C-alpha cells in the first residue's frame, strides 16, 4: 500500500472510510425504518475523489426527473455537505409514508418541505453522528435546507461556467436506497472539500489503529 | 492451561470463516477471534462467492458474515450455507438493525451481531457456537 503524498486515500483508508459510512448509513436506515414502518434497502457505498462537476453529472446521468434535495452542512474536525436526494415524485411518496397514507395531495404539498426536512435531518444527522462518534470527534450540523432542480443545481453549481469551485476536487460518496413495497428511492451523498480531507485522513488513520488494537480505545 | 502437545485423539481445531468486503472489518473480526479463541483456525473471504468456494474447498465450522456486501448479501449467503450445513453456527454482522434484517437472521437460525463488532458480543456468540459444536460432535 503506497503512502504517496497525493490527494487520494490509500486502499486501507478508503476501505475504512467506506466501512464508517456503511455503519453510519445502516444505522440511519434503521431510524428511517422506524418512521415509515417498512424496510429500507441500501446499496454498498461508493467513495470517489472527483470534481464537483463530475459529482453533479454522476447523479444527473442516473436521474432524468427533477430532484429534491435535503442538505445539511457539517463542520468540525472535517467539513462538508451531506445530501439526501430523491426524484421529486418519490419525495412526495416519502412524505406520505412518514406523515400518513390518508393525506390528500394538497395536504402532502403543504407538509412536503417540513416533512422532508425532518426526515432528512434524522437520516443525515444519524449518519454523521455515528461517523463522528466512531472517529471520536464532534461535528456541528447546520439546519436542513431544501433545494429542487437538476444535478448541477442541487450541487450548488447553477451559476454555470462561473460557478465557484466546479473544477475543485471533492470527496464524493454516495449510496442508493429504496423502500420496499413503495415507490421510494434516492441517494445519500456527501461532499467534502480537500483541506478537510487532510484532517479526515488523519482521523481515519487513528480509527484504523484503534480498530486493529494498536491504540487504546 | 492446555498442554502444548496434543494427544493423537485431539479433535481437529475449529475453523471459522470471516466474510466481509471490508478488509478493515475482517481485520477487526480476526483480531477479536484471536483474542477470544487463539486455538481456532481463521479463514477469510471478501464476498459471498469466495465464501461459498471456501466452504466447498475446506473445513468451515463457524461463519461470521457481514450483511451489506456487493453482490450477494450476508443473509442470502447465510441462507445458502444453512441449506448445506443445517447445524453450523452462523452470525450475521451489521449496523443495520432493522427489524426485517434481524428477523431474517433469526429465521435462518443465525445470530445477529451489531457493527462495530465488540469482543463481548463476539465472545457470547462464540460460547454458544462452541457448545453447539460440542453437542453435534457428541455421539
Automatic annotation (TrEMBL), chain A:
Keyword RNA-binding: no
GO molecular function list: hydrolase activity
Keyword Hydrolase: yes
Family matches, as CDD domains: CheC_ClassII
Top-level taxon: Bacteria
GO BP: any one term: chemotaxis
Keywords: Chemotaxis, Hydrolase
PANTHER family: PROTEIN PHOSPHATASE CHEZ (PTHR43693:SF1)
Identification of the protein by name: CheY-P phosphatase CheC
Species per Swiss-Prot/TrEMBL record: Methylobacterium frigidaeris
TrEMBL record, chain B:
PROSITE patterns linked: RESPONSE_REGULATORY (PS50110)
4-aspartylphosphate PTM sites in chain numbering: 66
Keyword terms: Phosphoprotein
Response regulatory domain span: 15-130
UniProt xrefs under CDD domains: REC_hyHK_CKI1_RcsC-like
Pfam families: Response_reg
One of the GO BP terms on file: phosphorelay signal transduction system
SUPFAM superfamilies the UniProt entry points to: CheY-like (SSF52172)
Protein name per its UniProtKB record: Sensor protein EvgS
Amino acid at each position: 500500500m503506497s503512502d504517496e503524498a497525493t490527494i487520494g486515500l490509500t486502499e486501507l483508508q478508503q476501505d475504512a472510510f467506506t466501512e464508517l459510512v456503511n455503519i453510519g448509513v445502516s444505522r440511519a436506515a434503521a431510524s428511517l425504518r422506524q418512521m415509515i414502518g417498512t424496510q429500507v434497502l441500501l446499496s454498498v457505498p461508493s467513495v470517489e475523489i472527483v470534481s464537483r462537476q463530475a459529482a453533479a453529472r454522476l447523479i444527473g446521468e442516473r436521474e432524468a426527473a427533477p430532484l429534491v434535495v435535503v442538505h445539511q452542512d457539517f463542520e468540525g474536525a472535517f467539513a462538508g455537505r451531506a445530501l439526501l436526494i430523491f426524484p421529486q415524485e418519490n419525495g412526495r411518496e416519502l412524505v406520505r409514508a412518514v406523515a400518513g397514507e390518508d393525506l390528500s395531495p394538497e395536504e402532502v404539498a403543504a407538509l412536503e418541505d417540513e416533512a422532508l426536512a425532518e426526515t432528512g435531518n434524522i437520516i443525515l444527522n444519524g449518519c454523521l453522528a455515528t461517523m463522528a462518534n466512531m472517529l471520536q470527534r464532534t461535528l456541528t450540523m447546520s439546519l436542513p435546507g431544501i433545494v429542487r432542480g437538476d444535478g448541477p443545481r442541487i450541487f450548488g453549481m447553477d451559476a454555470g461556467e462561473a460557478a465557484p469551485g466546479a473544477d475543485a476536487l471533492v470527496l464524493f460518496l454516495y449510496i442508493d436506497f429504496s423502500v420496499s413495497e413503495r415507490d421510494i428511492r434516492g441517494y445519500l451523498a456527501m461532499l467534502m472539500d480537500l483541506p478537510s480531507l487532510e484532517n479526515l485522513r488523519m482521523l481515519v488513520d487513528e480509527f484504523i489503529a484503534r480498530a486493529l488494537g494498536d491504540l487504546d480505545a | 492451561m492446555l498442554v502444548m502437545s496434543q494427544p493423537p485423539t485431539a479433535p481437529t481445531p475449529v475453523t471459522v470463516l470471516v466474510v466481509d468486503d471490508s478488509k478493515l472489518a475482517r481485520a477487526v473480526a480476526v483480531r477479536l477471534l484471536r483474542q477470544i479463541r487463539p486455538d481456532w483456525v481463521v479463514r477469510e473471504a471478501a464476498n459471498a462467492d469466495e465464501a461459498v468456494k471456501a466452504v466447498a474447498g475446506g473445513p468451515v465450522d463457524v461463519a461470521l458474515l457481514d450483511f451489506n456486501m456487493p453482490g450477494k448479501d450476508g443473509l442470502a449467503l447465510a441462507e445458502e450455507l444453512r441449506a448445506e450445513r443445517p447445524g453450523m453456527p452462523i452470525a450475521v454482522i451489521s449496523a443495520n438493525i432493522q427489524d426485517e434484517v434481524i428477523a431474517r437472521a433469526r429465521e435462518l437460525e443465525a445470530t445477529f451481531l451489531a457493527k462495530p463488532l465488540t469482543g463481548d458480543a463476539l465472545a457470547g456468540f462464540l460460547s454458544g457456537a462452541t457448545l453447539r459444536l460440542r453437542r453435534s460432535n457428541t455421539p
